[in-house]
Amino acid sequence: MTGVALIGSGRMGLFHGETLSRRLPGVRLVAVADPVPGAAQRLGADRSYENPERVWADSDVDAVVIAAPARFHAELAVAAARAGKHVFCEKPMALTLAEADRVIDAARAAGVVLQVGFNRRFAPDWAAARRLTDAGQVGTPRLLRSLTRDPAGFDPARIAPGTVFNETLIHDFDTLRFLNPGAEATEVYAVADALVEPEWRDRGLLDTAVVTVRFANGAMGTAEACFEASYGYDVRGEVLGSGGMVTMGDGRRTGLTFSGAGGRIVETSSSDQELFGSAYVAELAAFTEAVRTGAPAPVTGEDARAALAIALAAAESVRTGKPVEVAK
Fold first, then answer.
1. Domain range holding 179?
2. Closest listed residue to residue 248, CA positions, set 219, 281, 276
3. Of 317, 283, 313, which is closest to residue 116 (Cα–Cα)?
4. What are phi and psi of 199, to 5 degrees?
5. HSE-CB of 250 using CA atoms within 13 angstroms
6. Which of 1, 14, 53, 74 gets the highest tally of CB atoms within 10 A of its CB?
7. Residue 175: its pLDDT value, please?
8. What tens digit of pLDDT does each residue of 266-296 get?
């Protein structure tokens, strides 16, 4: 059994905890570290810690899943690696490139697996699109697109400035890289505004953004995000290449379409866990398999750093109103 500790038991942490305790054979949820009590008992973990430092000394813990708030990710990942624990870290892995480098260096020095939670790579549509790209059927990528639209119910008081780039669009930046393999981003131009909650604009909270990304192979990508879509949770992607086009996602929960007197009705997804539930499980399955076998992580710290570099360039582009080179 692979012993895993969960750090952070918020909305995403609880889903990961349920996966670790109930959905993955060969995995044991040893502990939950969170200052809020009760999650360990709910998830069936062996023990509860208020302080994650207790996890580092727990010999039954082989690996950690970090689902704490983003500002703590890098510090926790470095500490876990130095304690010899394999690390799965939710996105973003870090908030600066220097922090990202510290995490990567710590994991490399300790010889532990480091995987980051870019779940779309594990969703069936996106994984199939990558296989088509790798097989050459799409040809040379020319235009790429990725979008994220969150469901209604956006609460600006719970969102930190920069979230639209660091925690939302960072998925789309990784998707563009994933579907244009081998080519890194070179330049970014972004526009963003507070269109859902205009009164929060002066506090730095931007909720709607469009980003164009130039890649070293000449391909051009577009990433867009909005924190509110009245119809549900909507994530899509597209690659146009010299050999054809592949599209991913349509926002549907199922393939059902009902046509009646009132028109045509489809069932749309209302949350990321509903749309990408299987992908969330698959990414942790891949992580624990890498821990057991020594296989390389399918989503690396270097992948997380590259997506963060695009996010930081996008934020700088909004501040300056100019295209920005992506840092190496």
1. 120-275+307-325
2. 276
3. 283
4. -70, -15
5. 10
6. 74
7. 98
8. 788 888 998 899 999 999 999 999 999 999 9
Cβ contact 67:77 at 8 Å: no
Side chain identity at 89, as an amino acid letter?
C
What is d(CA 281, CA 123) in angstroms, rounded to the nearest whole number? 10
Q: From the centroid of its chain, how far is CA 265?
A: 30
Domain tally, the chain: 2
- Looking at the fold, whether 317 and 205 belong to one and the same domain comes out as yes
Residue 272 CA to residue 269 CA, distance in Å, equals 8
Structure tokens at 267: 């069932």
In a shared domain, residues 159 and 255: yes
* 256 has pLDDT over 90: no
Q: Write a three-state SS string for the chain.
A: CEEEEEECCCHHHHHHHHHHHHHCCCEEEEEEECCCCCHHHHHCCCEEECCCHHHHCCCCCCEEEECCCHHHHHHHHHHHHHCCCEEEECCCCCCCHHHHHHHHHHHHHHCCCEEECCHHHHCHHHHHHHHHHHCCCCCCEEEEEEEEEEECCCCHHHCCCCHHHHHHHHHHHHHHHHCCCCCCEEEEEEEEECCCCHHHHHHCCCCEEEEEEEECCCCEEEEEEEEEECCCCEEEEEEEECCEEEEECCCEEEEEEEEECCEEEEEECCCHHHHCHHHHHHHHHHHHHHHHHCCCCCCCHHHHHHHHHHHHHHHHHHHHCCCEECCC
Q: Average of pLDDT values for 124-134?
A: 97
Distance CA 51, CA 189 (A): 41
Q: Is 324 left (phi over 0), alpha (psi -120 to 50) or beta?
A: beta
| Beta bridge mates, 54 | none
Same domain, yes or no, for 177 and 60? no
Per-residue confidence (pLDDT) for residue 42, from 0 to 100: 93
Q: pLDDT exceeding 70 applies to what percent of the chain?
A: 100
Q: Using an 8 Å Cβ cutoff, are 303 and 118 in contact?
A: yes
- CA 135 remoteness from chain centre: 25
